[in-house]
Design a protein that fits this description.
alpha+beta, STM4215-like, five-stranded mixed sheet
């Protein structure tokens, strides 16, 4: 079963590894979504890609014996920079995030990440920001139970 916190950590790690590979760690950093107001207001010295689990959509179970569902998982990457252009600008950070995540298949997921939404760039208090939403899929199934199903097992028609 997918752990959303571990998924966020995995994506943050992948982004930071890309920043190291491309020698842009002086310009960009990836972190998980802040947990409190103080962390949200923290001022970063470089462009930041905040990674956050957004939501899930579940299919109905197709089995009459056990519950097994497909889960469509959405992860959002909020990008915040001081500049729009240049080596430490928004356009470069956006590029590295896309190159790092499009086509990547996270652990415990059955599909590769693809971009499902984009929110426009905005400028507020001297910072540029936008959001890319990535989607993947996984499966969710019930644990095994030794106890009988309420009402007994389905016997079919006689």
């Amino acid at each position: 079963m997918l752990d959303y916190g571990l998924l966020e950590d995995e994506i943050v790690s992948r982004l930071n590894d890309r920043f190291v590979k491309e020698s842009v760690t002086d310009n960009f950093l990836s972190v998980v979504r802040p947990e409190n107001e103080a962390d949200i207001k923290k001022v970063y010295e470089k462009g930041v890609a905040f990674v956050a689990y957004a939501d899930s959509l579940f299919t109905n179970s197709q089995s009459i014996d056990q519950v097994v569902q497909r889960e469509t998982v959405k992860i959002r990457v909020f990008m915040v920079t001081d500049n729009l252009r240049g080596d430490n600008g928004h356009y470069k950070l956006n590029r590295w995030v896309k190159l790092s995540l499009v086509g990547y298949q996270p652990n415990h997921c059955s599909n590769r990440l693809y971009i499902s939404d984009y929110k426009e760039i905005s400028y507020d208090n001297g910072r540029w920001s936008c959001m890319l939403e990535f989607t993947t899929e996984t499966s969710l199934g019930q644990e095994s139970y030794d106890e009988p199903i309420i009402g007994g097992a389905f016997q079919g028609f006689n």
